[in-house]
Amino acid sequence: MKVLVTGATSGLGRNAVEYLRARGVSVRATGRNEAMGKLLQKMGAEFVHADLTELVSSQAKVMLADVDTLWHCSSFTSPWGTQQAFDLANVRATRRLGRMGRGLGRA
Questions:
Q1: Which residues are in the NAD-dependent epimerase/dehydratase domain (predicted)?
Q2: How far apart are CA 69 and CA 39, in angstroms?
Q3: Contacts for 73 with CB less than 8 Å, ≥ 6 apart
Q4: Which member of 37, 71, 77, 83 lies 3.0 to 4.6 Å from 47 by CB, making a disulfide possible if both were Cys?
Q5: pTM of the full predicted structure?
Q6: 3-state secondary structure 80-99
Q7: Nearest-angstrom CA–CA distance, 48 and 14
Q8: CATH number for region 2-103
């Protein structure tokens, strides 16, 4: 089984990668922080640098290839953000990822 973990470079997503890898699960991790991505690779995860708010179909195709399950941990949670920033990251990016996955036959 291969799991795609979004938002893997911090918080819940990083902990999800650690949890899955400790159980021998194959993980493809995505996030914006390339330095943390290198640490995830040392844990045995495959890292794909991606910002879901700017996701394009070619990135989605790489991210979702051969994935059995999605753990969507990516979110914007800053107390200083605008409603527009929250909507872009937490609603529109999630919707876009779902549509792209469905378009690739992954939903």
A1: 3-97
A2: 22
A3: 5, 6, 7, 8, 11, 12, 13, 16
A4: 37
A5: 0.86
A6: CCCHHHHHHHHHHHHHHHHH
A7: 14
A8: 3.40.50.720
What count of other Cβ atoms lies within 10 Å of the Cβ of residue 50?
Answer: 22
Task: Report the C-alpha gap between 3 and 5 in whole angstroms.
Answer: 6
Give me the torsion for CA of 6, 8, 13, 16, rounded to 10°.
100
Torsion angle of C-alpha atoms 91, 96, 102, 107, degrees rounded to 10: -40
34-66 confidence digits (pLDDT tens): 999 999 999 999 999 988 888 788 888 888 899
Query: What pLDDT score was predicted for residue 107?
Result: 59
Residues near 99 by Cβ (< 8 Å), separated by ≥ 6? Answer: none
Give the DSSP H/E element, type plus range, for residue 31. Answer: strand 26-31
Phi/psi for 18 (5° steps) reads: -60, -45
Q: Please name every residue paired with 98 in a beta bridge, in sequence order, or none if there are none.
A: none
Which has the closest alpha carbon to 64: 30, 24, 14, 23?
A: 30
